[in-house]
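Saturday, quiet lab. Running sequence design on the structure tokens for the scaffold JK sent over.
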């Protein structure tokens, strides 16, 4: 083992022998090959980490662009595109490649995401053969750079209310793209300020004087390096981080594009100006269109988890090198990770990172199944959208928390740019609002729970959801949640007496799952009851929803945490007996018990914990931290982060 072991395993716990290489294979899974390719490319372009600190904004943007194009030549960025256009034909591999790229410079990561995920993904998923044949071959190689122009200054998550207008002119068989007001300018658009030649522009389609809702169009924004006629481009300037990405603003003043510029997988306009769509309901059509872009949320969630791994790897390695204060009778200074508080700061976060890794495996697999056609129906897509939204929210919040805690855990050394925390803090912070604000995404999760993924899911806006719940008998909601059976199950799993007996269920994953399931189902039934009561009292649906919004977010958060734990439990069950299974089982228990501990107020308020049991859980979390401490470095080494990506020469050696 690489760890400096000064603390023995806690009494009564088996000390597992961790096989780092075998554990890396478990974590890399079926995509080990593509992950190793990305690791190799990261090492090749490791100097970009220094360039981020030393180059000016303009020079660094060019450097990032060059790195992205050179990486594209290796095949790592095009894995999700069809083989006939130069891709790898494997959506799951493309997600795995993107996740692994998050070990390196995050401007490179985001530039890749904009070019191949957003711009390329929109053309692939919303376009048809005419777009694929003309655009994808050059897009996949990086010869054609583009951007994804959805967000407007006045409209972020509320995509249905975008102000950009695309009016069809039947006489010329062209769409006329116009920015209606300053609030309708496209803003924060990656690649727009410098490198994009084409944009996928989301706009309100108007045909024959009738609005048909938001659709996407391919619009040239540059010609010969200069703005195209009718297009105005402005640089967003320096940002909090990610300054290798050229974010910009776009205005369109009567820009004309041919009829074929409409990405027409879900709707088309004939030369004569007749609008048709295979999906009659406009709301359902809109949500179906946006649902095809779920890949971005899956990517960002995974990237957040992997950025957290970098921070934890640095902080953990530092914690077994740095000595401070005499901690024993021999008068020697102790290494930081031997202190109980330091273990408490880092090891539950390490356990949660492993949990989120396995949850990301699940959502990546679901995405691959849906996009490859293995399981592609309306219900499967709704489940995927909900799970992707929730995993992205928890994964990116986790990254923000981990980077800050790890920076503090490295003291003043963590403040030096060479030790990576400065860039990690600045570059990951926006992940919580990339691809949708996390609170908005959790409302999407709650919507699916409250409507039980009803067949009319796509038709329900916020107020429609409230009315839908109000129309259900409360007993129906309760039956769907099955909270009454969960109450019994949790009660059966609670050990008797005031003290925990480990054999009676403290480390029983069924007990952990039952606790999280009960919390979720109890919250879900409660918010449904409150919504129904508000409507029964003739309350305005918007006001009723606003009054329970905190409750809505809480139930969505509880739901996703339960899914994360289930993914961890399921993964441990599949492993062969041995040291790695024991080690992951301990991490699983630490994740579960620290999650319950973090929300102990709720469990106490609702009678699921006694004061004595709550204290016992805290003792057990401490015990698990002591048990895991001797092989903590092995656990972070198993992530396979190239040493060149850690940098931090004074922290990790």
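Result came back. Writing it out in full:
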């Amino acid at each position: 083992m690489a760890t400096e072991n000064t603390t023995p395993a806690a009494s009564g716990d088996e000390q597992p022998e961790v096989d780092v290489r075998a554990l890396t294979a478990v974590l890399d899974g079926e995509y080990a090959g593509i992950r190793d390719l990305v690791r190799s490319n990261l090492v090749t372009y490791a100097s970009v980490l220094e360039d981020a600190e030393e180059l000016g904004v303009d020079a660094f943007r060019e450097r990032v662009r060059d790195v992205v194009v050179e990486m594209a030549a290796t095949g790592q960025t095009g894995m999700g595109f069809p083989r006939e256009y130069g891709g790898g034909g494997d959506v799951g591999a493309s997600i795995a490649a993107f996740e692994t790229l998050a070990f390196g410079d995050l401007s490179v990561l985001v530039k890749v995401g904009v070019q191949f995920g957003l711009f390329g993904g929109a053309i692939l998923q919303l376009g048809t053969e005419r777009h694929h044949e003309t655009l994808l071959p050059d897009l996949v190689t990086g010869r054609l750079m583009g951007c994804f122009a959805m967000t407007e200054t006045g409209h972020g998550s509320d995509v249905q209310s975008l102000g950009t207008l695309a009016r069809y002119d039947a006489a010329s068989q062209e769409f006329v793209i116009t920015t209606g007001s300053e609030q309708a300018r496209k803003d924060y658009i990656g690649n727009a300020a410098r490198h994009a030649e084409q944009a996928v522009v989301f706009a309100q389609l108007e045909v024959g004087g009738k609005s048909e809702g938001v659709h996407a169009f391919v619009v040239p924004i540059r010609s010969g390096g200069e703005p195209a006629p009718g297009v105005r481009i402005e640089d967003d300037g320096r940002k909090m981080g990610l300054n290798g990405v050229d974010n910009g603003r776009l205005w369109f003043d009567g820009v004309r594009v041919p009829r074929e510029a409409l990405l027409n997988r879900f709707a088309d306009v004939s030369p004569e100006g007749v609008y048709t769509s295979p999906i009659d309901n406009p709301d359902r059509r809109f949500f179906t269109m946006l649902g095809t872009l779920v890949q971005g949320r899956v990517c960002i969630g995974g990237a957040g988890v992997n950025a957290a791994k970098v921070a934890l790897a640095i902080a953990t390695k530092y914690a077994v090198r740095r000595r401070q204060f005499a901690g024993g009778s021999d008068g020697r200074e102790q290494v930081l990770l031997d202190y109980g508080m330091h273990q408490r700061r880092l090891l539950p976060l390490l356990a949660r990172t492993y949990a989120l890794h396995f949850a990301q495996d699940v959502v990546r697999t679901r995405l691959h199944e849906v996009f490859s056609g293995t399981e592609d129906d309306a219900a499967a897509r709704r489940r995927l959208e909900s799970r992707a939204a929730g995993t992205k929210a928890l994964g990116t919040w986790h990254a923000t928390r981990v980077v800050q805690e790890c920076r503090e855990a490295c003291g003043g050394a963590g403040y030096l740019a060479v030790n990576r925390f400065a860039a990690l803090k600045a570059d990951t912070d926006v992940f919580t609002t990339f691809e949708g604000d996390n609170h908005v995404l959790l409302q999407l999760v709650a919507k699916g729970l409250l409507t039980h993924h009803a067949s009319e899911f796509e038709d329900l806006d916020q107020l429609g959801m409230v009315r839908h719940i109000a129309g259900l008998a409360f007993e129906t909601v309760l039956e769907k949640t099955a909270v009454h059976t969960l109450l019994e199950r949790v009660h059966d799993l609670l050990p008797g007496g005031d003290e925990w007996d480990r054999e009676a269920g403290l480390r029983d994953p069924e007990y952990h799952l039952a606790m999280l399931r009960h919390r979720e189902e109890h919250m879900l039934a409660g918010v449904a009851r409150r919504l129904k009561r508000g409507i029964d009292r003739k309350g305005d649906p918007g006001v009723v929803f606003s009054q329970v919004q905190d409750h809505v977010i809480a139930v969505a958060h509880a739901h996703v945490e339960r899914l994360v734990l289930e993914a961890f439990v399921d993964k441990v069950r599949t492993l062969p007996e041995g040291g790695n299974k024991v080690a992951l089982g301990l991490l699983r228990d630490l994740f579960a018990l620290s999650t319950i501990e973090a929300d102990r107020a709720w469990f106490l308020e609702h009678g699921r914990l006694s004061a004595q049991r709550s204290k016992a859980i805290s003792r057990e979390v401490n015990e698990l931290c002591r048990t895991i401490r001797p092989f903590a470095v092995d656990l972070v080494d198993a992530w396979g982060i190239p040493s060149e990506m850690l940098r931090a020469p004074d922290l990790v050696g």
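Notes for JK: The radius of gyration is 26 Å. The first helix runs from residue 20 to 28. Ask whether to fix the surface positions before the next round.
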